[in-house]
Amino acid sequence: MILTLKRPDLIRTENFINGQWQPSNLNESYPVNNPATGQNFAQVANSTAQDATQATKAAYEAFEDWRNQTTKVRSEFLLRWHQLILDNAEDLARLMSLEQGKPLAEARGEVAYGASYVDWFASEALRTYGDIIPETVSGKQRLVVKEAVGVVAAITPWNFPLAMIARKIAPALAAGCTVVAKPAEDTPLTALALVALADEAGLPAGVLNIVTSSRDRVSDVVGAWLEDARVRKITFTGSTAVGKLLAREAAATLKHLSLELGGNAPFIVFEDADIDAAVEGLMVSKFRNGGQTCVCPNRVYVHNRVYDAFADKLVTRVAALHVGPSDREESQIGPMINERAVEKIERHVQNALQHGATILTGGTRIQNDIACGPHYYAPTVLANANHDMELAHEETFGPVAPLFRFENEEEVIQAANNTPFGLAGYFYSNDIKRVWRVANKMQTGIVGINEGAITSETAPFGGVKESGYGREGSRYGLDDYMEMKYLCQGNLS
Fold first, then answer.
1. Helices 71-87 and 89-100 sit at what angle, rounded to 10 degrees?
2. What is the DSSP letter of 204?
3. Number of H helices, E strands in the chain
4. In which band, very low, low, confident or very high, does the pLDDT at 373 lie, cut at 50, 70 and 90?
5. Contact (Cβ atoms closer than 8 angstroms) between residue 281 and residue 271
6. Count of Cβ atoms closer than 10 Å to residue 322 Cβ
7. Closest CA to 168 of 484, 477, 475
8. In 3-state terms, what secondary structure has residue 149?
9. To the nearest 10°, the Cα dihedral for 385, 390, 396, 401?
10. Ranges for the Aldehyde dehydrogenase domain (predicted)?
11. 370 falls in which pLDDT band (50, 70, 90)?
């Protein structure tokens, strides 16, 4: 894929600190690879702890002015930023496809999805209501008001390089916080372009800062924010292991935390389900972004009575998926992000075969004249999955759908909940009584009922158990960036 943008100036490779684009303090850079080919195509700033501290200083000094702006001013900025994202959607999508590998159609969808959070929180900025506590003691007036937390450090993953950072920055700015951000080392360019558009929208210097770093420097950059008492909140999307580390380290200064961590989503098809709808729902939820999402079904439980019919229909759909580079309009599955990702998929599939699984379709790397790069893996359906397999306990993060058999409702709910994770879960049933029973018993923060597309800027996104805490999106998402302050005025009588 040759990167041609209407606005080449959106390709930024330096840090953005205090309203200025600048190299890292050591003037070092690291390469960004195209996952479709494995080749380097850009060099971005390789930051250090000093760069991170400089960004914190800028955000801290800008905080008082920004928090004291009216909600109308902050809302109007977000609306201008939203419009610039839409105006440059195609360039953002092409840049995202090149560095992340997802097909252009999906990249365009992600731009629209990420922009929806900016638009949503532009409106929510105007609705940061407090409360008046009813009078119980004569002569006292008691109020609850909400105030910005302070400087927020946003750390985002590679699988949704625009939507995830927009989902964190937009509510932070709406609440009156200032931001220091670090995008994933694999996909920094989309985030840098997004910040360039925020600058173009007129954001004051220091309110939004972003630094990039290689994998070897991540701990230095994030460590500087964890140690700095001026950073009052960490918002992170990524692995549970890293989330636990952040929680431990953030305790030293009692920072606020929002952690959207790993998942192990069950997808249950009951015997009374609409099989065609269930297959469609699984296609949407499992194979989006090549299976590289935290809410992808990782365990597909199908009632024994409908197992064969479901498997046949699913295999037909999965085998027909087009695998190829992101710049081909017909591509539905692009490359995996890197070699480590492909190796994990291969390990999970081989382990499943060793424990009795059979391949119904896929199960191999793809290297042909269309998918000619090193990181393509065929969309795969495995039959006869069981809980002795690694894929039953770890996120595969790839286009692999393992099918488990079950016999009754109690059994499958117990299996679905038998995991330390609890981000998303899905089930299909046409029995209204069962719908409420199962929804109430599923130990997840999000439940898809006869639906595979569950995310929306209007709904709270987040998990329970070891999938983290805090919520993003919706009216609840703004609260994660605000403190409650209680005011008590006496001697009024």
1. 70
2. P
3. 14, 22
4. confident
5. no
6. 14
7. 477
8. coil
9. 0
10. 21-486
11. low
Quote the tokens at residue 419.
Answer: 């995991």
Helix (H, G, I), strand (E, B) or coil at 381: strand
Q: What is the DSSP letter of 215?
A: G
User: Token pair for residue 356?
Assistant: 């009795």
- The correct CATH number of 265-456 out of 3.30.1510.10, 3.40.309.10, 3.30.56.10, 3.30.420.10 is 3.40.309.10
C-alpha distances out from residue 331 to 41, 76, 104, 352, Å: 22, 38, 8, 28
The one-letter code for the residue type at 415 is A
Q: Decide if 483 contacts 144 (C-beta within 8 A).
A: no
- Quick one: which H or E segment has residue 361? strand 358-361
pLDDT digits (tens, 9 = 90+) for 234-255: 999 999 999 999 999 999 999 9
Residue 369: pLDDT band (50, 70, 90) is low
SS3 259: strand
The two structure tokens encoding residue 259: 């952690």
Q: For residue 195, how many other CB atoms are within 10 A of its CB?
A: 24
The answer as to CATH 3.40.605.10 being correct for domain 8-261+467-486 is: yes
Whether 260 sits among the annotated catalytic residues: the reply is yes
pLDDT for the residue 394: 95
Q: How far is CA 24 from CA 17, 47, 178, in A?
A: 10, 5, 21
Residue at 96: amino acid letter: M
Residue 29: strand pairing partners = 45
Residue with tokens 């389900």: 273
pLDDT above 60 (res 407): yes
For residue 354, give the amino acid letter: Q
Q: Give the residue extent of every domain in the chain.
A: 8-261+467-486, 265-456
Burial zone of 69 (CB within 10 Å; 0-12 exposed, 13-18 middle, 19+ buried): middle
